C-alpha cells in the first residue's frame, strides 16, 4: 500500500511539473553525454598515443654537401663513411635502442617522390640533395633525450629529430578539446542541479497541504521525502538513458557509418564498442544518484521535515 502511494505521488509530481521535468531530463542528458564523450575522448587520446608512440622513430640526419655550405653544424663537410660507421656502432651499443635502420640519399629521394611526387618542388630535387639518415627505434619513446644528447652536435650529424614531436601538437589539441568539453559539462551539470532543486521546491510547495497532513498523522520524514527524491531520480535516469543513446549513436554515425571516420582515417586506431559500453553504467549511476542527492539536500531546507 505504501509503495503504491509513493508511486502515485511520483506520477502526480511529474505531471504537475512536466515542463521543468523535461528541462531537467534534457540538461542531465546533455551534461552526461558530454561527460561520457570526455571519458571516451581521453581513452581515444591514450589509445592513439600508445599506438603511435610505439611506431615513431628517432631520426638522425647526416650532413650532405649542400649542408656543408649552408649550415654551421656541418661546417666540417659532408659525413664520411668512417663517421657513419662510428655513429651506427655507437647506436647499436645503447641499451635504449631497439633497432637501427640506415636510409641512403637515394632511398630518401625515392620515398620523397612516392609521398610528394605531385609537389612542384619534387621535380627540382636530385638524390644528392637528400640527406642520409639513421632511423632509430627505441624500446621506450620517452628515452629520446638519451639519443639526442649523445649524437646532437657530433661531426657529420646535421640534426636529431624525434618524430613524436610531430604528434604532440595533435595530442595537445585533442586534450584541449577534452578540457573544453569538461568545462561545458561542468556548466551543464550546475544548470541541471539548479533545475532539479527548483523543481523539487516547486513540487514541495504545490503539495504543502498533503505533506502537512502527513506530518499530523505521524508519517516519518523519510516517507514524506521519498516521492520527491524518486521524482528527481526518475527524471535523471531518463536523462541518463538519453545520454547513453546519444553516445551510442555518436559512435555509430561518426566512426562506423555516416561520416565513417574509421574508413576515411585509416591511420587512426579508434576505440571500440567495448570502451563505449564500459562508460554507460557509470553514466546511468551518476544520472540516478546526482538528482536524488540534490533533491534530498534541497528537501532538508525547503520541506522542513
Q: Taking all residues together, what is the mean pLDDT?
A: 78
Global morphology: elongated
Major sheet summary line: 4 strands, antiparallel
- Biggest sheet strand order reads 2-3-1-4
Pick out the low-confidence regions: none
- Note the run of SSEs as H and E: HHEHHEHEHEHHHHH
Which structural class do you get from the secondary structure elements?
A: alpha+beta
Note the beta-strand portion: 5-15%
Task: Give me the number of helical elements.
Answer: 11
How is this structure best described in words?
There is one protein chain. The protein has 11 helices and 4 strands. The chain has helices spanning about 1-15, 20-55, 65-70, 80-95, 105-115, 145-150, 165-205, 210-215, 220-255, 260-265, 275-300, and strands at about 60, 95-105, 135-140, 155-160. A 4-stranded antiparallel sheet has the order 2-3-1-4. Helix 2 packs antiparallel against helix 7 (about 165-205), helix 2 (about 20-55) runs antiparallel to helix 11 and helix 7 packs parallel to helix 11 (about 275-300). It is elongated and about 100 Å long. The model has no long low-confidence stretch (mean pLDDT about 80).
